[in-house]
Amino acid sequence: NAGDLVAALEAIAPSSGASRTPAKAVTPDAPAGGTRLPRGLVLGGLALAGVVVAALVVPRFLKSPEPAPSASVATAAASAMPTAVTDYPPPKTSSPEAAKEFGLAMQAWRDASWESAIAHLLRAAQIDPSFAAAHLWLAGGGQGTLDEQRKHLAAAVELRNQLSERDQAVLEVLQVVLGSDKPDVEDGMRRWKALADRYPLDAVVVASAGVGALNAGHKDEGDALLDRAMALDPKFALPLLFRSWFQVDEGNLDGAVASANRCLAVSPSAASCLAVRASIEQRVGQCGKLEDDARRMIALDPASPDAYQWLTAALVGRGAPMESIAETTHRAREYSVTPTQKALHDAWDPVSLAYLTGDFTSVFAALPALDAFLGGQTSDGVMGTVGTEILAYEEAGMRDRAVAVAEGYLKRLPALTHDDPFGGRNMALWIRHLAGRISDSQFRAEREAWAKEAVDMLPPRLANQAWLYFYAGSAVTAADAREAFEALPRYSPLPPFDGIGYQERVMSQVLLLAGRV
After folding, report:
1. For residues 263 and 357, what is the distance between their CA atoms, to the nearest angstrom?
2. Which of 80, 208, 428, 513 has the highest CB neighbour count under 10 A?
3. How far apart are CA 21 and CA 32, in angstroms?
4. How crowded is the C-beta side of 217, counted as CA atoms within 13 Å?
């Protein structure tokens, strides 16, 4: 510990007044075994919610050395080599196997393999359900729905006496961040920065403070903190993953590719950085490169559902036989990390595959299973598929059925956990307005209220998407389109149009309605 280090330094120090040469730092042993959800389903589902949640709450914890008790200790710490996430002593667990899984998760975080880290942490928590640190990482890892994260948070709170002083401080921050459906990103940034000031040599905490600053719209400060985290641990690839995510949101695709490539140079096994590159290749229609990167991801982790989802996207884009698309979809389902993801695949994949071939008979045959799945969900984050149902029934001329789906969803909405500001709400607004089930004044009131709620929920860089969903996306008449453009200055600048199909379709639609051919 730092006290022993200082005692050793004092023992060999020259007499008072002479210059001192810092001793070489000793890096603690790595934990035993030490060596994402923004990817969504290819055709719908959790993609947006995954991006939002993962960006709001990222991995931020592990044991760190005790705070320095004196100025001399602080001086020694300042000259010591910073501690990487894989260098901390293993946290408390009664199971060597769980400790090994936890160590593998820490290496995966350092390597920017988000999905792999979550899988190892889930196994650690399954092996030892009382493994407090595993639950803490899962709570902050941004995987799954907000309800699922809160369950892990509750377990960590119950087991908090097993956590180090630092981990308990992190737990307090997570309780605030995860405790609200509408997190205050400025408050979150202040809390993570305070923790980074308390543990300035902790690369994970410093990187988390960087993400907090970027979420709050403080780009220069966030970039500086990510740079500092990488300087503390040059083998820490995760900050480059975070940077690439934010660059994609900004529409800086060239910068995002450059960051992803730097990430892969630091960590050739950085599957999540490959996934960022794949997302850009899909946007710009580079299906051959997308397939190559998806296969490289599979080579890194043959049980990666993320990789098979990207491979499915590439095969769809290249017009591959439906049998091969069905096979990669099946593998994505087979390797799903959480039970909710697997259940969503079971319910959604038959609908998705039928849509690809225009087989509406099979779409309608598969919808009851999707309805049953959604009926058991408590989170907005998996409700995006409600919009698919609405569109299917409207396309088939079954407008009454489409409206019934929308109204049934809205009746459940107040009781749901709001971890997605859109869910199926924009489609529910559109179909009820299209069918004349709500008045113009009611339409405008709901549009305004839901757009405001979305702005309150989203980080500043994403808040302008509320206009695309609730103004442009719900427009039915020329008057709606004109009102949408009148409201646009309140939401500017819009996110860049860089191949995101929904955004470009919606903008085309509202321009056409407004007569701006």
Report:
1. 38
2. 208
3. 33
4. 11
